[in-house]
Amino acid sequence: MRRKQKRDYFVSCIVAAGGSGSRMQADINKIFLDINEVPVLAHTLMILDDQEEIDELILVTAEQDIPGCRDIQEEFNIRKLKVIVRGGSTRQESVRNGLLEVDEKADIVLIHDAARPLVTGEVVQRVIDGTLQHDAAAAGVPCKNTLKLTDAEGFIADTPDRSRLYEIQTPQGFRRDLIIKAHDYAAKTGLIGTDDCYLAEQMGSSVKIVEGDYQNIKITTPEDLLLAELFQNFGQTE
Question: What's the CA dihedral at 55, 60, 66, 72 to 10 degrees?
């Protein structure tokens, strides 16, 4: 897809917020837990809402969490949040529900995890630019650790070349018709992937990795909350 002139394109961002609190040892969705006295979801939405090149936000969450999400929208004045959508039984199904709400004039669809509250505007912009150039792009960082592939019995079967391995983050960006086609393909074939890039890959599309950020962590365990607070506090004192 040819890059258009600045702001001569429309960007929709789906925020996937359907997680639970099981690995957080919490009895509520982890998006409602606090980082420096502000809910995880509020951090994420405020960052995305402030991005000039994002035109609309679509939040997808569990039905029981919709009232709490509306409260956060109102309390933190999230202006670009167009709709809060009931999610499905899987993340993939939830994103598909979100795609149904994307504005028809959207050129680009970003998909971001609500549980990544430390994403920066720079990372978001790099994903948008990468998508404009290559039709699909995802934030990622080089793997720091050596990874091993095991056999069925748990023995090391292979050691992939670390120089070519990346930890993939969100946001992930796609041309609107490409990601809709990828989800339609997955629904028809029963394909299930851990992220949206996988669906595009399986359909034969190429996805460009752009520079992410090691601080763009996903909140999954109690330790992640502590780490996120440290990252935020360090950034505030610089």
Answer: -40
